[in-house]
Structures are given as structure tokens and as C-alpha cells.
Amino acid sequence: MHARLQTVRALPDQFNGPEAAGYLIKVLEGHPGFRGVHLMVQIGSRQGLNLSLWDSGEDAEAAPARTRSVMGPRPFPLDHDEVYDVVSTASGSTALADATVCQVTWFDGPRSAAQVEAMRRAGEERIRPVVEQVPGFVATYVLCHAADSAVVVLTLATSTEALERITDAVFSTSLLPGEDPALLTDPDRVELYKVENQSLAGIPVR
User: Fold this and answer.
1) Which of 74, 163, 166, 205 is deepest in the core (most CB within 10 A)?
2) Which residue ranges form the domains of the chain, and what is each CATH number?
């Protein structure tokens, strides 16, 4: 599975309502390879973030042109627009439809193969088993950019309080045997978003 991650610095009001979001979702659902989309707005600002999920990288790359053919030219510029591999997903006991907030954690590239492997091991073997048990945890997507191995981790939850519990759970873990803390760098930035709308039919997490 692949993802297209798009952000806009200041989402115009006319594109942040249920009608506009519903129309965009309907258009995306008609594209080949569409799996799902989360439409979000940053808490405390008007920055928008769209995470769309696709069967293949080709479908993800073709999505903007296919959308333009239906909706016309984009009426505002994007700050970030990249296609990523979805390298890992995780889910808790709460339904994906119940997600209300999302923490987006950015690890900018370039990153070495050793750094990427260290992050993979930490996420899969140390962090995931703990986070999946936290009340209010919904799902996590781990994205990796093919060109420079930049990593983006999106954590969906039912509330900001749940996100705080998830963070506490992550920091409560101890390094596994052989883990090198020098390879586990701090994120470049962490952002908090409200989930405004979503389409979930083809997303392979609960």
C-alpha cells in the first residue's frame, strides 16, 4: 500500500466544510486503486493535511491529475505533496471511524539504512505491543519516502488525552538488547490535527 501526504499552510474556509470535503471524497473514491483518505486540520491553526491511501505508487502518483480532470485546477498551492510507501500499520481495539485526532511525527531525510532499520525494529518490537494496549489508541501508519528514507508516523486516537497516554507509553519502554540509541534520533517536528472527515472502506486496519 502507498500513501500520498499533502499539506496546505492555510486551508481556505470554503474548502473546510462538510460539503467540500464530501465532494472531494466522492471524487477520490472514483479513482483506480483508492483505499481511503483522512482529511485533517491542524489544531491551533488553519493548516490542512490530507492522507490518502492507494493500492500502488502509480495510483498515488496519478491521483492529482485524475482529480483535476473532475474538479479543475487546484485553487490553492500545497506546501507538501509526496508519495510514500506504507511500511507498517497498527490498530487498537477502537474502530477507525472513531478517530478524532491525529499526531503527525516527521523524521526528515536523508536517513541511512541503519537508521531506518533501527526505527523499524523499535516500532515493531518495542513500541507497537505497548501502544496497541492503550485505551483510545485507534491506528498508526508508518510512511517512508523512497528517495531519501524520510519517515512520517501518523497516530490516530479518540482524544488528545489518549494521545498523551500513547506518548507516555512510548517513553515508558526500555531499549531492547542490541538497540543503538544513536540511531534513534528525535523527530524534526510533531504536529497535532483534528480529523475532519474520512473514507475508510479499503483501509486494511480496523
Assistant:
1) 166
2) 2-199 (3.30.70.100)
